């Protein structure tokens, strides 16, 4: 149990604002606005391998990674978009229809790994909150 368990905040309702691109892979997520959470980074991922759609889950660490280059870009978004600071990272697990909410600080302080580039992993059991996808509203 954490302090987040006592916060009165429901499932996210997110309104897409613009794509976030990785310097090698192109679009990897998008910025979205939430009334309760402000500006969020949203990334759709797969836990399992689906052949034509990559597996993004790191079994050893039981979590998802965000590229350090994306984390740096998100810290600059406040100045670029003049819409506020990104404090929340939302991982949408497409194949299992789960939604995980993390603080950006959790990824900044996450487990470092080298994949295509330096990344930070946070285990899904460390998410601030989680929901079934059908409980959330994602306007894309």
Would you spell out the secondary-structure blueprint of this structure?
Elements: E1 13-22, E2 26-34, E3 38-45, E4 57-58, E5 63-67, H1 68-81, E6 86-93, E7 98-103, H2 104-108, E8 111-114, E9 118-123, E10 129-132, E11 137-139
Parallel strand pairs: 1-11, 3-6
Antiparallel strand pairs: 1-2, 2-3, 4-5, 5-9, 6-7, 7-10, 8-9
Written description of the protein model:
It is a single chain. The protein has helices at 68-81, 104-108, and strands spanning 13-22, 26-34, 38-45, 57-58, 63-67, 86-93, 98-103, 111-114, 118-123, 129-132, 137-139. The protein has a single domain, classed as Trna Endonuclease, Chain: A, domain 1 (3-Layer(aba) Sandwich). 25% of the residues are buried. It has a seven-stranded mixed β-sheet with strand order 10-7-6-3-2-1-11. A four-stranded antiparallel β-sheet has the order 4-5-9-8. Strand 1 and strand 2 (26-34) form a beta hairpin. It is mainly beta and 140 residues long.
CATH secondary-structure class = Alpha Beta
Report the mean per-residue pLDDT as an integer.
85
Q: Would you identify the regions where 5 or more consecutive residues have pLDDT less than 50?
A: none
Q: How many strand units?
A: 11
Number of helices: 2
Silhouette: globular
Query: Largest sheet, order of strands side by side?
Result: 10-7-6-3-2-1-11
Q: What is the makeup of the main sheet? A: 7 strands, mixed
Q: What is the subunit organization of this protein?
A: single chain
Report, as a whole number of angstroms, the end-to-end distance.
Answer: 33 Å
- Indicate the structural class: mainly beta
Q: Percent helix among the residues? A: 10-25%
Helices and strands, in order, run as EEEEEHEEHEEEE
Annotated CATH architecture = 3-Layer(aba) Sandwich
């Amino acid at each position: 149990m954490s302090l987040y368990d006592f916060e009165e905040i429901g499932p996210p309702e997110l309104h897409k604002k613009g794509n976030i691109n990785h310097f090698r892979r192109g679009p990897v997520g998008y910025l979205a606005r939430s009334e309760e959470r402000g500006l969020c980074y949203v990334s759709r991922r797969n836990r399992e391998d689906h052949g034509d759609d990559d597996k993004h889950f790191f079994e050893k660490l039981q979590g998802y990674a965000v590229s350090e280059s994306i984390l740096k870009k998100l810290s600059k978004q406040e100045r670029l978009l003049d819409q506020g600071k990104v404090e929340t990272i939302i991982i949408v697990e497409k194949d299992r229809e789960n939604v995980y909410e993390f603080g950006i600080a959790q990824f900044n302080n996450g487990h470092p790994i080298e994949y295509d580039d330096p990344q930070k992993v946070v285990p899904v059991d460390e998410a601030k909150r989680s929901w079934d996808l059908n409980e959330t509203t994602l306007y894309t």
